[in-house]
Amino acid sequence: MMKHARSRLPALHQIWAGLALLGLLALSMAFWPSIGLAAPLSQAEPSPPQTVELGQFVFRDLQIGASAEFQIEAPASTNYLLTTDNEEEALAFDLVVTGPNGDELVNGIFETTELALESGLYTFEFLAVDTANLSFVLLGELGAMTADADQPGVLRSGSIYNETDVSEARYADLSIPATDYPRQILLFIEPGPEDRFFLSAQGNDAVAKTISTDDASLLSLWTQGGDYRITVEPAERRSRFTLIVFLSGPPTPLTLGESIEGAIPVGSSQTVYQLELTEDLTELRLLLDSDTAGLTITMVDQLSGGAFAASSSGAPTLALENVPAGLYYVFVETDLAVTEDIPFTLSADGLTGEPLPFLENGVPTTGAFAEGEESAAYRFEVTLPGTLVQLAAQSESEAANFDISVGMQPEQEIWRSYKLGAEDSLEFVAPYAGLYYVTVLSNGSPGSFTIAAAEAGGAPSVNLNGATWGSVEAGGTDVHLLPIDGSGQLLSVLLAGAPGTDLGLGIAAYDSRGEQVAYAFDPGGGSTAIVSKRIESPGLYEVSVSALPGVGGDYLLLTRLEQPAELLGEQWANSATASSQRSESEGSAQQATGKPDTRVAGDAATAWSQATLIAASSPLT
Question: Which of 170, 202, 336, 597 is the most buried (most CB within 10 A)?
Fold first, then answer.
């Protein structure tokens, strides 16, 4: 039976009281993003029920007479703690807690409340008897840690874990559900008196952070979901600690034309805001005002693997051009976790205008360069990764000398043509679906032009560990697709062209933001070339064959992908004996064990077989 139960939980309440005395969990709006409406909620604006997670801090401004309703899933039957970061403001709210069956568990003034709950969905309704800021979080005695790294315990957001007499490291896995937006994980650790611990979090998204309780009690990191190995290691034997897992909601919104007061809180190195652009901007400026120099503004569309990223690199202003509409995240950050709050003011301003024109698939678009105009920019959408994209530009003016460049970000140049004359073309393998940015360069040539871009289907693939035949025009480039799974392999590509050709060979790969993750190029200087590259990450690789003007022709590619260890000689046999013995003039079958000293047949003591086979040869068994 579910009931409001204080008497059963003295240990839990005592743990929380001790933590509150530290003052470290008086979490401010600067640290935890607001959930709900930015403006105070009035009596005439009832809030619909909102689902939040266990361990997720909620902040909301409520005017007198207004109410707010939240639903939280209790994952297991155990003891829970409903608490606030401001006990004084909490007195401005009445609280009603309703169980899964509609039974009322709590009805009274909101205060830190201990609950014994069964698993199920619970409703928390707060009524403001005075205008105030509501803040609350629900935590539970959930999860476990073990001393075995191969069989770790399990923690979740909202877990309170307490252990005494700890003499070796404790391990647990923490899983955070995936979301479309970044959230902050905050691990709070309180050691026993005069005890010292190291707390670390290692994620499958390559995130790794460690703190010592000598320096901090809060370990924070941002996530869009994933699995994390949590390790708590004592510096001394027979120590004790309490660990609590908090989780934030969506980042605080940043609005164009407005400023927001914020801070990088103690123990953290970042604060993040959500910026939604409803239309394309020709210019966007993010401005940071702080007494602390060297803060960096970083803007991304995803925490990792996104298509957009820009950084001020320590400057107080981040200025961007031609920013497409979409949802972005703005980080204010330092290199290291700070030891005291760093306040700042962040503002965002943008100018709308004519967005970059789209190039429709296969449809020519006309443009013109005025005297002194250097470039014209366009957008083109690729629907499938691995597509062969072909672009062509031409001008009626024989004096024109236009070039084409393409990137995955505005003003980024990944692929570029360098042909002379009034006609130009470019083709490349698009590693990702999405927007690509096309620039026509005037090279000082005014006049009109026509530009067209087309998806020409899947790019021709390289025959991995085999031969690939092709032909490249004089002054042109022929491109191929090479999908690679796994990492740590050695890629080797050999090019052999027809006699008289002058060919170059390259391989390249890019991440979703257009950053180069692999590159190798051999300019050739004749009809042959070879490149080799250790593959650090899987993906779609582009293999290109280029020809100098006047010297194109047929070519052959030989491509191998191998594990480096397989290229090293290994012992040929563990044991071997000769089945017969002959005189030295006839040769003999010999011992084949030991380190090999040859890769071909021979009569050396460590060789597999004789150099010359004779009748009645003696096999090794």
Answer: 170
* pLDDT > 70: percent of the chain: 83
For 157-168, give one letter per residue: b (16+ CB within 10 A) or e: bbbbbeeeebee
Average pLDDT over every residue of 440-460 = 91
Last residue within a domain, chosen from 221, 247, 273: 247
Task: Please check whether residues 38 and 71 belong to one and the same domain.
Answer: yes
How many Å apart are CA 510 and CA 518, to the nearest integer?
7
E strand or H helix at 406: strand 403-407
The values of phi and psi at residue 89, to 5°, are -70, -30
**Whole-number Å distance between alpha carbons of 199 and 363:** 58
Residue whose token pair is 């005592």: 14
Place of tokens 């460049």: 405
The string over 71-82, giving b where at least 16 C-beta atoms fall within 10 Å of a residue's C-beta and e elsewhere, is ebebbeebbbbb
Which of 520, 399, 410, 506 is closest to 462 using CA atoms?
506
Both structure tokens of 135: 């803040």
Domain that holds residue 545: 466-567
Question: Can you say whether the dihedral through the CA atoms of 41, 43, 49, 51 is positive or negative?
Answer: positive
Categorize the per-residue pLDDT at 356 as very low, low, confident or very high, splitting at 50, 70 and 90. confident
Question: Are residues 23 and 130 located together in one domain of the fold?
Answer: yes
Strand-pairing partners, residue 67, are 127
Whole-angstrom CA distances from 526 to 90, 275, 503, 507, 548 are: 79, 53, 6, 18, 10
In this prediction the pTM is: 0.61
Q: Encode burial over 95-124: b for 16+ CB neighbours within 10 A, e otherwise.
A: bbbbbeeeeebbeeebeebbbbbeeeebbb
Residue owning tokens 């100018």: 351
Of 262, 264, 246, 242, nearest to 254 (Cα)? 262
In a domain, 4, yes or no: no
Residue 18's SS3 state is helix
Per-residue tokens: 292: 């602390």
Asked if 381 and 314 sit in the same domain, the reply is no
Assess contact for 350 and 372: CB atoms under 8 A: no
Q: Which two tokens stand for residue 303?
A: 């925490």
Q: Which residues pair with 333 in a beta bridge?
A: 270, 296
Are 122 and 21 contained in the same domain?
A: yes
Residues 6+ apart with CB under 8 A from 62: 40, 41, 68, 93, 126, 128, 131, 132, 133, 134
Q: Are 346 and 260 in contact (CB under 8 A)?
A: yes
Domain count, the chain: 6
Mean pLDDT for the stretch of residues 58-63: 91
Q: Are residues 272 and 176 in the same domain?
A: no
